[in-house]
Amino acid sequence: MLLSRYRGTTLVAEPVILPGGEAILFHDIVENDWIWAVPADEDATDEMVARVQAAAAQTQEGGAPKPARSHLSYFSLGTYWPGIPFSLELLGTIAARAVLRHFARRLIGFKSSGPNHLYTNFLAGRTTIEDTGFRLEVEIMPPPLAVVLRMAGIHNEVYPAHWIGREVWLRQTSD
Description:
The chain has helices at residues 2-5, 47-61, 67-75, 86-105, 115-123, 146-152; strands at residues 11-18, 21-28, 33-39, 127-131, 135-140, 156-161, 166-172. By secondary structure, the chain is α+β, with helices and mostly antiparallel strands. The chain folds into 2 domains: 2-108, no CATH class; 125-172. A 4-stranded mixed β-sheet has the order 4-5-7-6, with no helix packed on it. The chain has a 3-stranded antiparallel β-sheet with strand order 1-2-3. A hairpin with a 4-residue loop joins strand 6 (156-161) and strand 7. The termini are far apart.
């Protein structure tokens, strides 16, 4: 189990609601990482799960803010894919956020930025995709903070996409 291998000391459990149902999201509040999620109705017998749920209940009673709740809708697959199995929704939600957090960590000064800020300043805009048969060429108009992308070396990259049998070439236009 991933949770038993995690070495963080600031792990809390946050009850969250996704389109597929209720879940417990394990969240490192210092590193701002979402570690693991489990459906709230699943029979979780692990002693660690019980301890983390109790800590979350105490935190909730104290009125502490729940940072994951405010960003959850940006990453939930169930919003766009009704009927997705809930366990797959949980996995996809955590994976989507991990990808965006990895992206944000590469940007100088944007490690703690929220998903809306990252989307608006780095990801939104006109994009064209061409399938050459050998690769997918993704051409992106420069976003408002394109200079930060260039400084981080993210403006022209090649990603292997083994599951589709080709590479994805990402490049910014000069406009």
